[in-house]
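Tokens for 5'-3' exonuclease. Go.
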Amino acid sequence: MSRLLAIDGLNIVRRVYEASPEPDSPEKAEIALRHALSSFRKLINEHEPSHVLPAFDFGGPTWRHALYAGYRAGRAPMPAELRAALPAFYTQLEGWGLRVVSLPEVEADDVIGTVVLRWLAEGRGEATVATTDKDLHPLIANGARVWDHFKGEWHDHAWVERKWGVPPEQLPDLLALMGDATDAIPGVSKVGAKTAARLLRTYGNLDAIMAGAGILKDVLGETLRKEREMLYLSRQLVQLKTDVRVGVSWNMLAWDRP
């Protein structure tokens, strides 16, 4: 059976880099990327894929910034030393025979979502996403598997429900309701994970919640009605874009162990 391994590249690189308390420097970047390279090798050796997609954020504005100017406002930029070292890191990965994908105006999440859903829709086999990013966990609803490289554990339907109180297919609606401080996605005022999960268990989705909010006489109903526009904008921001023109074929992603 064919196996696709989609690697959220910067999810690994940034976690490894930030694990070191040392101040930013070219030496710190070099050491972190050496460890990240070992992580990539370990992922490939453990999962034995037939195809590998190493996806990286390109940097700069994306379609989400065009939709909402405040997107990721306040997030610290990638250290200049690390960004300067990335091209050489990509070259090393490509030297293994991997095809690095990094596209302007979209995020690595969108590239992974597009490729994984296409792979599964075509019935090509298993799809594993190596990431700790919650935004990619909705892919579990379509049959993908999520692997946390740092904890060495699988995330499945049951894991998502334990963590968030909703199944994977409802995760984008939950994130839209509660917002995401990491990406400066506003959500609805004073709605946290527990309230968002309770609303979704009761109503099922955002449209049904908003239909019910029309008759709620409490503060929550008033807030939902008042912030309806921002809620639906937040839903667009957390939703994966799954029609990206990736520009690679399955043959380009095929992995032949050197």
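The chain has a mean pLDDT of 95.
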